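Notebook B, p. 112. Complex prediction, attempt 2.
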Amino acid sequence: MKFVNTLCASLALTVAAAAAFAHHSTNGIYDEERELELTGKVISWKFINPHPTLKLEVVNEQGVAEEWDLSYGGSAVTHLVRRGYTADTFKPGDVIKATGHPALLEGARGLLMEGTGDPVREDGTAIIQR
Amino acid sequence: MKHFSLKTIGAAVALALPLAAAGPAFAAEDIPNLSGVWQWGGCVGPDGQVGQGFGGGFTCMLLEEDDARLTERAKAYRDAFEEAAQPKYDCAPISIPHMWTDPYSHQIEQLEDRVIFTYGKDDVVRTVWLEGHDHPKPAVNEFFYFGHSIGRYEDGKLIVETSKFTFDPQGLNADFKLASTTQKKVTEVYSLVDDKLDLVVTTIDPFMLKEPWIYHVRSERDEFPLSLPWACDAEASRDILKLAPSDYPNDPPVERIQYP
């Protein structure tokens, strides 16, 4: 698998104020006191119910590629459609930047993007057109 | 032991209906025009105002994991039951009343002898059988995932009473493993307030609740049609379980049935 230099992970861990809301189905799964920013390459984007799934390849500080599961929490296709998402929003190979709450489970690579904004391109420009 | 799908049960009940339903059973002035698509409701507070936002608008519809209304057995069941065993991870729908905490629109169709509720999630269709039309009643040994619903119009309101629920491990709250029993009864009272849909829900289950659980929500009409079919993906439904370790690690791993 080929990695692009610019994918060198930006794992910016910051302490953020507690999220204003949380879907209860993700209760106890993510650390909603923390925010993590990931930059990586889209592996797959499934625009399906009950929850669309976005998988991202991120190169960690040791230069090792890791697969991350990015979640929209309780949102389903119908909610994301209203926010401007489509089945073609992300394509494999797209480089994107996403911010969210990391999973609590030690070693797990999951990110909850609920209340943390939509993913953007690597240069920070919007992907989602409203 | 026989197993019935929701659709099978619905079809069977529909076929059992008399072809010629009785005439109008309710006075026209008693029947509010509830038909249409309605947005997810927001909680109505004591001041009569509707709450705003994802976190502020739906809390009345939630039974929290340590809610004072829960019985000791409800809490014991909650603690023993593993998250991964919740039916929702096999794409099973969530029944009433917890279903209404999910942020989806729903559609109401008022027919002569019944009212049909279609929900924007899980392809759920509930039929409320209106009184006065000689609809068949379930047998004593019949129980249903969404119960058996009987309705009537009264003073401009639609009153729906639902009982005959199956035991449901996610019947009071699917996120906190709060179960409901065959003794659950849900009463819904629908009316119009300034062309908004007003709904008061009362739930009792003496095994799991010490007192009735009552909440009041209001919805606005939705300009969008429902986005159906739901087409749930079972793998996606349990994606999150990868992040939740098993409560029972010494038990053999569970190989789930792969439904065609």
